[in-house]
Design brief:
A four-stranded mixed beta sheet has the order 5-4-3-6, with helices on both faces. About 30% of the residues are buried. The protein is an alpha+beta fold. InterPro entries: C1-like_sf, DC1, Nucleoredoxin-like, Thioredoxin-like_fold, Thioredoxin-like_sf, Thioredoxin_domain, TryX_NRX_thioredoxin_dom. Pfam families: C1_2 (PF03107), Thioredoxin_8 (PF13905).
Length: about 400
C-alpha cells in the first residue's frame, strides 16, 4: 500500500503534516461546520485517510470505516482520523464528506498534491498513521477494516495474525455455535416466516450456500440445489440443511433470492454474512461448502457435486463420490455404446450428461444418456426400444 514508509517517527509525522498545512496557508481543520486547530498528535493516535468521491472502492470503504470508527470511539479508543480529499472539484468534495464523523482537511488542490506526494499516495483509499511506527502495522489497513471492522484495531501485523488464527479456528474447529455466533444463540430466517437456531443444526450435514439474485449462474444453480434438497430431506434418515449466505446488494435483492428457497438464510442485516465469506475465503459465487455432522468442512466444491450428482451425492463426502463414480462405471459396462432406436432417424451414442431432458418421456435425466451428435436428440437408457 502506498505511503507505508512515509514516516517512522511520531514527532516527524505529526510535525511534517502540520508544517505542510501551515506552509500552504492552512492553519485549521474542519469538523462539520466548525474550524478546529491543527492536532498535535500527543493525545490521540492520528490516521490520514486519502479518498475521493469518484472512486468506487473509496465509496464502498467509507461506510465500513465510519462504522468501525464510531465503535472505536464508543469503546474509548484514543483515535482520530483526518480526511485528505483526492476529489477533482469542490462539489465532489462536499458530497464525499457528508456524514464523515472525523476531521477534514479543507478542499485545496495544491495542498492535496503536496500531501499526496509527501506520503507517497499511489492508490486510494489509503489509511495510514501519523503517530505510529509503520514497521509494526499491517500493509493493508483498508483491507483489514473491510474484513474485520473495529476488531482490526490497532491495525498491526500481530492483530492481523490473531484475527486470521481465529478465522482458521472457526473454519476447522467443528463448533457451529462459534462459527455462526461467537457463542451467542442466533436465528436464521425463512422467506415465509419462522426461524431456526444454530443449535438446531448440530449433527446435520450442512451446505453453506453463498449466492446472490443479481448473479445468473446463482439463479440457475439454486434450481438444481432446490431439487437435490427436496429429494434429500424427504428421506427422514438423512439429516441435511442448507444455510443461504447472501451477497446481494440490497434487501430487495435478498428477498428475491430467498423467495423460492425452502431452506433458511442468515438475515441480511447480519455481519455474519461477511464474516463467513471471509472465513471460508469465498472468492466467487455461486459457492457451496459442505460441513459434516461434526461441524467440520468436508468439501469446498459442493456446487460441482450437486450439479454432477444431485441428491445421489449425499452426504457429499469423498468416499461417497468415489462410490458413485464406481457405480457409474459399472452402469456403463452394462449399456451398449450406441443404439439405433425406432423413435429417431440417427444412431445414438452413449454419453454422460450432468442433466438433460429426455426427448421421448420429457423427464429430466442425469448421468447416462443416448445422444445424437447430429441433432442433439437425447433418450434415457430406459426409453430405448431397439438396439444394434
Amino acid at each position: 500500500m502506498g505511503g507505508g514508509d512515509a514516516c517512522e517517527s511520531a514527532d516527524f509525522c505529526t510535525l511534517n503534516f502540520k508544517t505542510i498545512m501551515e506552509q500552504e496557508g492552512v492553519h485549521h481543520l474542519l469538523y462539520g461546520e466548525q474550524k478546529v486547530p491543527l492536532p498535535s498528535g500527543k493525545e490521540k493516535t492520528l490516521w490520514l485517510l486519502f479518498s475521493a468521491n469518484w472512486s468506487r472502492p473509496c465509496k464502498a470503504f467509507i461506510p465500513q470505516l465510519v462504522q468501525a470508527y464510531n465503535t472505536l470511539i464508543e469503546t474509548g479508543k484514543e483515535i482520530e482520523v483526518i480526511f485528505v480529499s483526492f476529489d477533482r472539484d469542490e462539489n465532489e468534495y462536499e458530497e464525499h464528506i457528508k456524514g464523515m464523523p472525523w476531521l477534514v482537511v479543507p478542499f485545496n488542490l495544491i495542498l492535496q498534491t503536496v500531501i499526496g506526494n509527501t506520503y507517497k499516495v499511489n492508490q486510494i483509499p489509503l489509511f495510514i498513521p501519523l503517530d505510529v511506527g509503520t514497521k509494526l502495522l499491517s500493509k493493508d489497513a483498508v483491507g483489514l477494516i473491510n474484513d474485520y471492522g473495529a476488531d482490526a484495531f490497532p491495525f498491526t501485523k500481530n492483530r492481523q495474525e490473531e484475527l486470521k488464527a481465529l478465522d482458521e479456528a472457526k473454519r476447522g474447529g467443528g463448533n457451529l455455535i462459534k462459527l455462526f455466533t461467537n457463542g451467542i444463540e442466533y436465528s436464521f430466517v425463512y422467506a415465509k416466516g419462522g426461524k431456526i437456531y444454530a443449535s438446531n443444526l448440530v449433527g446435520k450435514t450442512i451446505g453453506l450456500y453463498f449466492g446472490a439474485h443479481w448473479c445468473p449462474p446463482c439463479r440457475e444453480f439454486t434450481s438444481q440445489l432446490i431439487e437435490a434438497y427436496n429429494d434429500i430431506t424427504t428421506n427422514e434418515d438423512q439429516e441435511f440443511e442448507v444455510i443461504f449466505i447472501s451477497t446481494d446488494r440490497d434487501l430487495n435483492e435478498f428477498e428475491l433470492s430467498i423467495s423460492k428457497m425452502p431452506w433458511p438464510a442468515i438475515p441480511f442485516n447480519s455481519n455474519t454474512r461477511q464474516d463467513l465469506c471471509r472465513i471460508f475465503e469465498v472468492k466467487w459465487i455461486p459457492c457451496l461448502i459442505f460441513l459434516g455432522p461434526n461441524g467440520k468442512t468436508i468439501s469446498t466444491n459442493g456446487r460441482e457435486m450437486v450439479s454432477s450428482y444431485g441428491a445421489r451425492g449425499f452426504p457429499f463426502t469423498e468416499a461417497k463420490i468415489a462410490e458413485i463414480e464406481k457405480s457409474l462405471m459399472k452402469e456403463k459396462d452394462g449399456l451398449p455404446q450406441q443404439v439405433k432406436d425406432s423413435k429417431h432417424e440417427h444412431i445414438l451414442k452413449l454419453d454422460m450428461a450432468k442433466a438433460y431432458i429426455c426427448d421421448f418421456c420429457k423427464k429430466r435425466g442425469v448421468f447416462w444418456a443416448f445422444s445424437c451428435s447430429v441433432c442433439g436428440y437425447d433418450l434415457h437408457p430406459t426409453c430405448i426400444e431397439e438396439t444394434l
